[in-house]
């Protein structure tokens, strides 16, 4: 790895170039530079300088593991520990051992994802980050309370979450690829559960099936024109040489995933982008020119080409989102209330109304039925309450089967504010699984165990062919995977 930090050693004027390599396993970064009391050679004079030993309390950070050529810092472990505490996550075993091992396993998957050219859609990353922040806001009660609690602005939270969320998605996609061909037969399912004691049969949580009908608040043409005028002004300023596109993106783009990088999207294929965005971006040929204004599902963009490489492009963009007024929200609520009144009066069924009126393209063609997609890619209409959008779960909590909610506002999967009504079409109370009523659930359990074993074996095999070095104090840990200590 490249080294990029110069530090002073003790009181001497010698500058040492400090980097993390496979052989720098125990390097520590402190306010005093080189820590370990080892000798450092002055290449100019061949003079040997003895550096002082430093008390552990002065250590700012420390490389505790190296996996391949990737370091794991003590601060990485502490950050994950703090995040887990905030989210109420409990670790099995000693967190001082479990957390670094989890980070190391993630690095194995990420390394393989690079080798296999695994990609994730940037828009999905942004959706996930926004969903997480919206959840935190609901838990805290308001944006202001959340910012006060975490000591960060919403923008800072988005920036700090982006890379972690993207890596998490890459790991999940890599895992999905590794187990995509694993299958289990009905005989395997029956055999597995015959061997289980009665009290080990899984408890199936309460599940619900929900239909939804949405109405997006209408954006007045004046607001759309205001956004377009801003984007035209940005284009004019860049064309005149007053300011760079990247600087404008950093200042004004409302895409939190790219704004901090000057609006830059790394090399990406057409299929990873919003279709409208991709159509314009892939037709750009001159890096000095800026695209026309593009409307996507996320808002309005202007795009600047950086480079093309085969079937992938690298671009910068600026995203601006029209502001939804309270007046527009109120009109959507009134519209939905009228539709609900007609459904209750049997003028429409909810299903027909959803097919005809709903603005949600993901459910409209399915008569409003919400689909739950698991991490392994399977789809079902059944949701546990925790898997529903928070606003939907709150509405149906006290509803009976067949009830239709009153209109409410929510944030959709694309991070946009919308209005909705929902119908509870089924509720199955929690119970012990049976092979006749819950075969799919039981099959999923057996399939998950088979996939878990495949992934476990893959990690163990990957460890054997990967350079691993750790601080001596971790060598006595009871790790989940064998082979870390070499």
Describe it for me?
With 486 residues, this protein is α+β, with helices and mostly antiparallel strands. 41% of the residues lie in helices and 20% in strands. The chain has helices at 74-87, 95-115, 122-140, 143-150, 154-179, 186-194, 221-239, 245-252, 256-259, 275-281, 326-344, 350-357, 361-364, 390-396, 439-464, and strands at 5-8, 15-18, 28-30, 39-41, 48-50, 59-67, 70-73, 203-204, 207-215, 264-269, 294-296, 299-309, 312-320, 372-373, 379-380, 383-384, 408-411, 417-428, 431-432, 468-470. Strands 3, 6, 7 and 20 form a four-stranded antiparallel β-sheet that branches. Strand 1 and strand 2 form a beta hairpin.
Quick description:
The chain starts with a strand and ends in a 16-residue tail after the last strand.
């Amino acid at each position: 790895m490249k080294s990029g930090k110069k530090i002073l050693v003790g009181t001497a004027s010698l500058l040492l170039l400090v980097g993390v390599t496979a052989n720098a396993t125990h390097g520590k970064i402190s306010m005093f530079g080189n820590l370990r009391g080892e000798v450092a050679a002055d290449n100019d004079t061949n003079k040997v300088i003895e550096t002082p030993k430093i008390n552990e309390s002065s250590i700012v950070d420390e490389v505790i593991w190296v996996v391949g050529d990737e370091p794991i810092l003590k601060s990485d472990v502490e950050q994950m520990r703090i995040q887990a505490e905030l989210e109420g996550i409990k670790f099995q075993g000693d967190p001082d051992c479990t957390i670094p091992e989890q980070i190391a396993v993630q690095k194995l998957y990420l390394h393989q994802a690079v080798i296999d050219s695994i990609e994730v859609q940037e828009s999905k990353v942004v959706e996930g980050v926004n969903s997480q922040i919206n959840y935190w806001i609901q838990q805290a009660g308001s944006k202001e309370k959340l910012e006060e609690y975490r000591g960060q602005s919403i923008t800072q939270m988005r920036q700090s979450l982006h890379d972690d969320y993207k890596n998490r998605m890459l790991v999940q996609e890599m895992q999905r690829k590794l187990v995509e061909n694993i299958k289990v037969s009905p005989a395997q399912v029956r055999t597995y559960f015959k061997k289980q004691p009665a009290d080990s049969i899984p408890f199936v949580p309460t599940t619900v099936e929900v239909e939804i009908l949405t109405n997006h608040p209408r954006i007045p043409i004046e607001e759309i024109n205001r956004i377009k005028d801003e984007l035209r002004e940005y284009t004019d300023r860049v064309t005149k040489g007053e300011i760079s596109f990247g600087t404008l993106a950093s200042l004004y783009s409302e895409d939190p995933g790219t704004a901090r990088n000057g609006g830059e999207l790394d090399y990406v294929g057409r299929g990873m982008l919003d279709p409208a965005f991709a159509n314009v971006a892939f037709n750009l040929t001159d890096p000095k020119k800026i695209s026309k204004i593009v409307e996507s599902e996320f808002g309005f963009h202007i795009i600047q080409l950086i480079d093309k490489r085969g079937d992938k492009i690298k671009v910068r963009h600026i995203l601006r989102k029209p502001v939804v007024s309270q007046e527009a929200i109120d009109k959507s609520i009134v519209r939905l209330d009228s539709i609900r009144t007609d459904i209750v009066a049997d003028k429409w069924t909810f299903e027909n109304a959803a097919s005809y009126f709903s603005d949600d393209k993901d459910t409209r063609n399915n008569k409003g039925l919400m689909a739950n997609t698991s991490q392994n890619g399977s789809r079902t209409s059944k949701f546990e309450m925790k898997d529903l959008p928070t606003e939907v779960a709150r509405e149906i909590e006290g509803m009976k089967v067949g009830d239709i909610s009153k209109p409410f506002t929510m944030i959709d999967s694309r991070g946009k504010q919308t209005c909705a009504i929902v119908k509870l079409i089924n509720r199955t109370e929690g119970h012990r699984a049976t092979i006749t009523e819950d075969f799919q659930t039981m099959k999923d359990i057996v399939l998950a165990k088979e996939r878990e074993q495949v992934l476990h074996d893959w990690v163990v095999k990957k460890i054997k062919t990967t350079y691993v070095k750790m601080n001596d104090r971790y060598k006595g840990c009871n790790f989940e995977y064998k082979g870390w200590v070499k």
